[in-house]
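Task: encode each sequence below as structure tokens.

Item 1
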Amino acid sequence: MISITNKDSNYLARIMKLDNVIEIEGARTLQKTLIDHQEVAISKDMKIGDVVVYFPAGAKIDHDYLSATNSFAEKTLNADTEVSGYFNSKGLVKAIKLMKGAIKSCGYVVPAQHFTRHYNWADDEWPFKDLPIEFDTINGRVVVEKYVPPVRTNVNGTGPKKVSKLNKMMTMLLPNQFNFHFQTEHLVRNLSKIDLNKDIIITRKYHGSSLILANILLKKELNWREKFLKFFGANIVDTEYGFVWSSGKPKGKKPKGIESDSLKWDTPNPSYYTSDIWAKAYKENKDKIEKGVSLYGEIVGPSIQGAEFSYGHEYQIYVYRITRTNVDGVVTEMSWEQVKEYCGKYDLTHVQEYDIINGGYNVGGVERLVEDLIDVYLDKSYPDCKVDEGICIRQGSTILKLKSPNFLIEESGMLEKGESNIEDEN
């Protein structure tokens, strides 16, 4: 049985029928198809109507399957050690230019039967009539997931002192007060979330390291007198507002630091940057974070993701989202206009706004909208960034991303070299 185990919908495989095939002049073994408005290289013998399995760029495919099909570039990893394939030893699906750029392939496609037979599924057991179907698990085995390069060695280790310090930090946080950023999903996989009759906001997507600065209720550290009075039934306030700073989606699910009148905590995890970029953001901006406010942003600069993604700054924060959390832990999302007003009030920089389609999009359907967005905004080169990441589409509390194929190719190269996003490590 197929199922979904992981929550990251951006890296699910999909059983589907090919609905388009594009021939390439001069190509003997390859052609291409468009899946989610992105080019994917396919075998010359595939045709419209074929049932296939599609894997998106950035995914990691099951090692056993790639080995059995002799798909690894390293021959010794394959069942037939005389044959070599395309994949690195970790099974990364790369975005790659082929045939001198005639194809910008942003995924991997195999015949469905070719894939399913490896997992001992008979043809009549698969629900081919109800396509497309997304999955990452077959019979309890995860066969595709997000590719994350190996974590670089932490010189401080994970000894008892570090674990104790992390455990103490968890007691400082109150339920529902601090929230990491949600997983930003791909627009092309979530077209049903866009209402063409409402305003559509288009903003730039920056490639850096995400940041959270929050001024929220924390558990107060009581002094001996307060503890004594509370023991005998006195009504002692045991919460207080304080600051939490963090990366947006750390693998360890723990913030970088906490500070209030009675508390002070810094992560025992070392920073893999030359300096603690999140603590720097807190120190420089804590006076701009009102009580109850959580600010979500992207830190960019040459020391973050390299000089090509500095956007003309040594160190810069771009705010893309702001929320308010009340004493009961109820979160209210600021509208884009409110985000801009807040940033203006405190001299903060929000992500660049490209356009607002007021009153919705009435030129055509949502597929036409995506085509227009791709034509206007993707694969562009700007003075501050030669390989621009792409855009975000915003509508109410919904934020969806659309990445440039050129950026996906660049990102695949970084992943293959082991240059992971720092947020996947910390």
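Item 2
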Amino acid sequence: MSGLEQDRVIIFDTTLRDGEQAPGCSMTLDEKVRVASALRDLRVDVIEAGFAAADLVMKRSFHCAELAHGQIELNASVAHWDVEREQLTVHSVTQVPYYLHLMLAQTLGLDSAAIRVVKPFVGGGFGHRVEPLNFEMVAGALARAAGGTVKLELTREETFLTHRARPDSDIHVKIGLTKSGEITAVDAEVVQRGGAYAGYGLVTILYAGALLHAIYRVPASRYRGYRVYANTPPNGAMRGHGSVDARHAFESMLDRMAAELGLDPFAVRRANLIVPPYRTLNELQVNSYGLPQCLDAVERASGWRERRGKLAKGRGLGMACSHYVSGSAKPVHWSGEPHAVINLKLDFDGGITILTGAADIGQGSNTLLTQVVAEVLLLPMSRIRVVATDSALTPKDNGSYSSVMPVRIFTPQRTSRSVRSSKAGFG
């Protein structure tokens, strides 16, 4: 598979038997060609020199099964078509109301000003709803056709078929380490079964390779990612979008190599720590880095040195590290605005209304915004109201990805700046 031409696109049929060819395809199934998209190598120039400098080089393969989100709340949408105004209003369980707004306009051929999207207070999505889904488009189309209101609620089986969860993955990792545990080179290949549609698939396979970086120093690396079309439910984002399975493989490799070199797993991680600010080979910028303190705290709290290797039969003590990116350099719904904005309105009764497009899916962004505004304006929280995720009223927000992005990254930073500037206007 690694010998495939760059950017070659091949569609395959999973119903074929070994040796059979799909119509119009010159390659057979037993050649294991199930590739729909390939990412260019991230870095190749010094990879072999890196492995040559290693005292130990190890290569292993890992298989990780497909995994569904299993969110309790079923997919549901209520759409209303205003016949006189020719306007559509959609209430849905989406994590990305403004992305849904964009796709409704494109799918139904409507002017964006003719669409209103409202996200009620919903439960967790865990990545299942980070892209507009088919039932939302269908509800909008049916409402327009009926000239009225349509409610569409999926069954549990239909929600599973909509899917968009973590893909079945085959991961091949090769790592070089020095005797002291320093990484000299990393070579990785990831093949993900993406299902019937692409969706966020290219992002999923990108993250699998991109996030091999930014937690440890990696002086040389090569990554090949392949996303496979299959006649199964489409895959996409799920908690740690794209990175979880690859990180599991990487950390497992470090443990195995540490054991072979006679090194403690903590020592191997500490041998590869980053000093911020740091720019990775694939151009990720690391400005904050709490891993050294985290390692120290976990080692102490777990009783690592006292307990490891001394527990009862069948019990063990292990460790691993992981990380994730913050923010979005290139949001899907680009309008030139910041990633997230809030507006504050001084009401006639002396209260403050927060207008926010941030999608609260249980992670508490509405509460956090209330706390931030109350602290900056020196007001009790009882004087503050929140109006959230109504495209007719609230400013644009890029959405809640996985579970906590807007709380930790998008919303608070913009909120602090917005509140401070607004405070000056209140006198």
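Check on item 2: Residues 1-18, 25-43, 404-416, 421-427 have pLDDT under 50 and may be disordered. The longest strand covers residues 183-195.
End of task.
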